[in-house]
Amino acid sequence: MNFFEHQDKARRKSKILILYFILALLIMILAMNAAVYGILYYTSQQVPDLRSLMNEPLWVYISLALTIIIVSGSLFKMYALRGGGTSVANMVNARRILTDSSDFHEKRLIHVVEEMSIASGVPMPALYIMDKEMGINAFVAGITPKDTVLVVTKGSLENLNREELQAVIGHEFSHIFNGDMKINIRLMAILAGILLIGNVGSIVLRNASYSSGSKRRDGKGGGGVIIILLIALVMIVFGYLGLFLGRIIKAAVSRQRELLADACSVQYTRYPQGLASAFKRMLMLEEGSKLKSPQVEDINHLCFGEAMSFTFFNSLFATHPPLDQRIKAIDPYGKYGLLDNTAKEEKQSGDVTGAKKTNLESVLAPIMYTMAATAGAANTHAEIMKNSIGNPSDAHFEHAKNIHNLLPEALLDRARNKEKIEYLYYGLILRRYKNKTPIVEYLSQTLSKAELESVNEIYEMLKPLPLETLVPLFDISLPAFSENSLEKRNVIYNHIEALSQTLMPSLFRFALLTLLGKKLTDSTRISDRPKYYSLDSVREEIAILFAFVTNYSYSNESQRNEHFTNIVKILLSEPIEKPNIKTFKAIQFRNTLEKLNKLTPELKEKIISSCVELVLSDNHVKIQEAEIIRVISGCLDSPMPPLLTEQIKK
To answer: Are 478 and 554 in contact (CB under 8 A)?
Structure first.
């Protein structure tokens, strides 16, 4: 199953969640009606009659009230989670880890996640830490890659060594690839409504108790209040029923996905001992994977390990398989013990990278792999590139480590510094284009002398680096960019867009601006469902995209027109004229990709496959072509790892 099939399956799984929600709602409505009628007939000393019950409107009011309470609770939770992963991190009082942190454990985490981001093509998520949690745990949360956060506990950073931490991060990244984040955050919203009924019962009980006491002091009868008290008690009981149903739903959704994430982590890192050792440290630690947060009920199904303890029905409620079962799944013969080096020893050494610095030659020559080696049994180059989406190999991780270690620490410091991030983007534009005169002229008119010196420093560091380092460096910079206020982010974006308007239209520059534009909002629609279910509904956008791609890949105008016509014939039911893109602006291209991003996963797959086939039509792909396909895939929320192939032309 490839990335797009996983995404489509996750979309269908979300529909199953709605069915679970409706089923739980019906169970609670039936049970609540039965309980209320039982109380009323018990207090009136009458024998209940089913026909008379159905003729009374009370059951309609009860059902309607219960539905309103539960649905309102879910909608309110959806609104509260509109910030995506950031909302979840704030909910558990996690602290954001600044990308320029000097703390050893935080720097090591940043390095590990940066390498994972390079290897997978996933934009670097914002990092958070739960400072008061000493158990070993972590989770990712978000709706789209742009709002994804990775939250780790302090216990994870202090107790896991680098290999163990990398295995945990690999597990969490697999949840991004498999579409689990959307399911998990929607599950939080759905269950919030089911659990709300108990809270409403508690409020009614307190108010009714106060009213009952007042009436007794006044010497008035309190028969009606007693009935309300009984109903409130029933609502509290049904709150526990909602909790029971909610835990069953979470367990049903989560368990198999956790085993899949374990398997994916081993697949990515090709180092099962790292994950097995992390599990064993959890068993040895007094806190294990348990969390003390009052929000633990909400986030348990998100976590790497079981965050709650269940007194009863553990096998029924647990959202994760038992640790011994998870260890056996990746180490069936019990040959892996604890890794020798500890987090404490690594801290004493002061090495956060886990590797020596890489020479330029080791990136440019020896680590080039054949396509067959990176993608198994795929039959064509296009299939290999497509199948690598959401499916990085150990070769990609080796490549990522080499790329990361190749980047000078001073350059990485700029990429992690929100104050320097604008200068980094100017440096990347300078490094990318041969004709630097219009860029230098624009910067000279808009920047101060000190700012120009900062840009030049970055450019000098970028000059000796190969082209394949530019996109990874850009991805690494995104968390620092998002650390700025929304106003500052818009200012930076507008400055770069203004520079872009002074230059000829560029597919690469426009695509990077589109990725940057994804960070210009702090809210996300929690539904985020596809809007377009046919390629003909976005025919103009398809024409714009492939006009850019053909112009980028071919210098001969007749070849451009021929390939454009062939692609359109495959994708659309009717021909469309090739648009003139010479006067296009960045915002037009951004709007184009944002609309294409609202296609279903299977249609996005067709778009990306067509882009790949287009650049591979001459049986060769240049570094520039490979990177532009990766950037376009990223704009469509389909992370593509670096291309590792000897067919690349330097």
So the answer is: no
CATH topology of domain 99-178+284-348: Zincin-like (3.30.2010)
Contact between residue 374 and residue 597 where contact means Cβ atoms under 8 Å apart: no
pLDDT in tens, 25-37: 788 788 777 777 7
> Which residues are CB-contacts of 298 (< 8 A; sequence separation ≥ 6)?
91, 188, 191, 192
Residue pLDDT, tens place only, 344-357:
777 777 777 765 44
Residue 142, Ramachandran bin (φ over 0: left; ψ between -120 and 50: alpha; else beta) = left
Exposed (0-12), middle (13-18) or buried (19+): which is 335, by Cβ within 10 Å?
Answer: exposed
Which helix (H) or strand (E) element contains residue 128?
strand 126-130
Whether residue 208 has pLDDT greater than 60: no
Tokens at 226, concatenated:
């007693």
Looking at residue 211, what is its pLDDT? 53
Beta carbons within 10 angstroms of residue 370's beta carbon: 13
Q: Collapsing DSSP states into helix, strand and coil, what is residue 116?
A: helix
Structural contact between residues 503 and 438, judged by C-beta atoms closer than 8 angstroms:
yes
Locate CATH 3.30.2010.10 in the chain: 99-178+284-348
pLDDT bucket at 198, cuts 50 / 70 / 90: low
Q: Which of 49, 87, 214 is nearest to 526 (CA)?
A: 87
172 is catalytic: yes
The crossing angle, in degrees rounded to 10, of helices 323-330 and 272-284 is 160
The active-site residue out of 114, 133, 164, 172 is 172
